[in-house]
Specification:
Number of domains: 1
Number of helices: 16
Helix content: over 70%
Distance between the termini: 24 Å
Largest sheet: none
């Protein structure tokens, strides 16, 4: 939605089927995540899980929390680099505040997409450039996913024997190929659009434009803003570098958390598993990826021979640390900063 769009009061009429399905999915999404988490908790050995948590090293937990706090900085810096390329120069502390508030709202909205939407909205209100605000967040998110998958590929190629043992190497490489193909498609949509014009019925595009003119206009501006980053390759390299720094920091934090829980996991395996977990967490299937993240930990670490109670304990600790960091954003939001 762009800044030019105006809210109008629709006439009273029965809700469309699509709206009913959307409302139903809003209710089913949290139930799906909580149901999956409940299933995982039901399947694990509670005594073993309690033993793992009770023996956690508080020193390592504190160190991991500090890493998570510091790891916010490269995320804000990569976002700021994209905004500067668009001509938007907001103070670093203001962007940090917006980022932390978005992280806080991730706890109540679908996956990481919810927090991204909050960032788009708040920055769009500040700058009056809704399309640029949205495109900066989307490109930042895509660069982050590319960086984490690239990190996973490097880990796979550096130790193929370990990667192929559980089959995780094939999953990382396959996901990376699919993602790259998707990015090539995204940044060449104008070609796809021209090919589609030759293959589709012209009146269909006309009908969509007449029915949803504001939506079509908004999507067009958003895509144009995303496409403009093609001419800022140096900036994209800087963003990629910050993304790699952030992802490596996340893996290092996860490694420290594994030490806190006395769970022996090779650092290379953490890099491979984390790349796939990050992709799974980006799917808007539950609130804050509840159940999705825990299931991904149990599955991918299970390929390394890690028992389900240990994997689940690591997932819950990781979620708890991220929740603690996000509470800073909650305080900022309540103070109205």
């Amino acid at each position: 939605m762009t800044e030019k769009m105006q809210v109008t009061t629709p006439p009273l009429s029965p809700p469309p089927a699509g709206g009913t399905l959307a409302a139903a999915w809003r209710w089913l999404r949290p139930l799906f995540g909580l149901g999956l988490l409940a299933f995982l908790l039901w399947r694990v050995d509670w005594q073993e899980l309690n033993c793992i948590v009770s023996q956690a090293s508080l020193g390592y937990v504190g160190a991991a929390l500090l890493i998570e706090l510091l790891n916010v900085m490269p995320r804000v810096l990569r976002w700021r680099a994209l905004l500067v390329a668009q001509g938007t120069r907001e103070p670093f502390l203001r962007l940090l505040s917006i980022y932390l508030v978005g992280s806080f709202f991730n706890n109540f909205l679908p996956s990481n997409v919810g927090g991204d939407s909050v960032r788009m909205l708040r920055l769009g209100q500040l700058t009056g450039r809704g399309a640029d605000a949205a495109s900066s967040v989307l490109v930042e998110r895509l660069c982050g996913l590319f960086a984490v998958l690239l990190m996973g590929v490097v880990a796979v190629l550096s130790n193929w024997q370990l990667a192929s043992a559980g089959g995780i190497g094939f999953l990382v490489l396959g996901t990376f190929v699919v993602f790259v193909l998707g990015m090539l498609l995204l940044f060449n949509l104008w070609r796809v659009r021209s090919w589609a014009d030759c293959l589709t019925i012209p009146w269909l595009a006309t009908l969509i434009s007449k029915r949803c003119p504001e939506l079509v206009e908004g999507l067009g501006k958003l895509y144009d803003s995303i496409y403009a980053f093609r001419s800022h390759r140096r900036v994209l390299l800087v963003v990629l570098a910050f993304s790699l720094l952030f992802r490596l920091g996340s893996v290092f934090s996860l490694y420290v958390q594994s030490l806190a829980l006395h769970v022996p996991i090779p650092f290379i395996w953490l890099m491979m598993a984390f790349s796939l977990i990050a992709v799974a967490n980006s799917l808007p299937l539950s609130l804050n990826a509840i159940g999705i993240q825990e299931g991904a930990y149990v599955f991918f670490f299970g390929l390394a021979g890690i028992a389900a109670p240990q994997s689940l304990a690591l997932a819950l600790l990781s979620r708890g640390l991220r929740l603690a960091v996000s509470l800073v954003g909650g305080v900022i939001y309540l103070l109205g900063k």
